[in-house]
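DEPOSITED CHAIN:
***
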Amino acid sequence: MNRILYCLVIAVIVISASYSIIAQTAPIESLINAERSFAALSVASGTKAAFLANLAEKGIVFAPAPTNGKQVWEKRPCSKSVLAWEPEFSAISSAGDMGYNYGPWTWSSHKDTLPSRYGHFVSVWKKQPDGTWKVALDLGIVYPTAFPKPLRVATVQHTAFTPKTTSPNARDMSLLSAEKAFAEASVKNGMVAAYQVVADENVALFRIDQHPMHGKNNITQALFEKNATVTWETLGSDVAESGDIGYTFGSYSFVTNGKTQIAGYYQRTWKKTADASWKLVVDVTNPLPQ
């Protein structure tokens, strides 16, 4: 009886551990699966159908300014072209209500043709009241040569440093304060210095015509804005319930001949660190077409 009881106890422990592992991995896996299902629908049924099915009601796309995505895609005609993509990196808040992915995409004129355009996407997702994931924000960059297909998806589970009891307004204001401080520093101290202060060690930098760059050591190379006076205007933001990740987006402008002109649009994803400061983990700029 003792041996049987011992085996039963071990079995319960193993099963409990298995369920614990599933519970820990399920949120991030569900986010990855949502991105993959989105991409699969794009290939099978067309990009328009895929975006309309996966965008949140107030989801943002850049066209080129940040715009309600459903309104944009409802006006676009159906196309026989194929937009395909897959995630190479995925991160999720500790509350499991917000996450972000990025990875390479390809575009082909038809299903039976080879890709002729390449780039990287960045998507921010939010969990909906019914438990499904929807895209809160989507944008990307274009570059001239193919990017290696990711062998696996790197993942990060963020850890909360802000209690869930903190009000949504307080969480949002905390991030906006960090964004404002960065914008002021970029004018006062220059772009490179401003980025060096707020960037995470493994920050992902996305710039048009270049493959993504990672790490603070690539900041100088990535910043085409480094030799100009740049001002930033935040147009929107949101923060996870757990207060550990959030995103901002808006426009950036150059001063030319004494006049400030919008040069493009940006999106930044931030994480909260153990010392309660915000660090930049994803940074995207898209210049306006010339």
